[in-house]
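Student:
Attend to each token:
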Amino acid sequence: MNQKRIKDRNSNENNYFRQEVFIPASYGYIALSLALALILNLLPLQGDLLVFRPDFVAITIIYWSINYPHKMRMSIAFGMGLMMDVGNTSILGQHALAYCVMIYLTLIFGRRLRLFGLMQQAPQIALILLMMQTTLILVAVSSGSHLPGWSYFFASATGTLLWAPISLLLNTPLKQKPDPNAL
């Protein structure tokens, strides 16, 4: 038992030095990723594709809120929510409120999420996405809409499955380039 602990501790020390160091994200890169996510959300899809399409803006906001909380504020999420409401011609402020709730939850879980790997983050991301969709449903029902079916929550499932690839995609330009002059 003690040999296993010593081996685990030594492997953790070696892994500490192998961690990747990322370049800080610029505001321009964050704005570009949010604009691309907004375009993906507003693509005109029909049928089953529409049911399974995740909220790319929500996933991108969660990513930036976890990794750079000082650059992703609630006001940016609110503005992106208003743009989603205008693009979807839905109740003005519906997505804005849901994105603000989502940012609040990621700020609460932020330290915990940064400690975990991408696959360990996925269940907590699923919880955050479900809370966002629940907020959207509550706002819609309070304004007189009907309750959607269970298929409405498929978007959270696909968003959870796409969490790791989207995070890796957003991380790729931030990796430091190897210095040819380094020893």
The radius of gyration is 19 Å. Residues 25-170 form a domain with the Arp2/3 complex 21 kDa subunit ARPC3 fold (CATH 1.10.1760). The chain is about 70% helix and 0% strand.
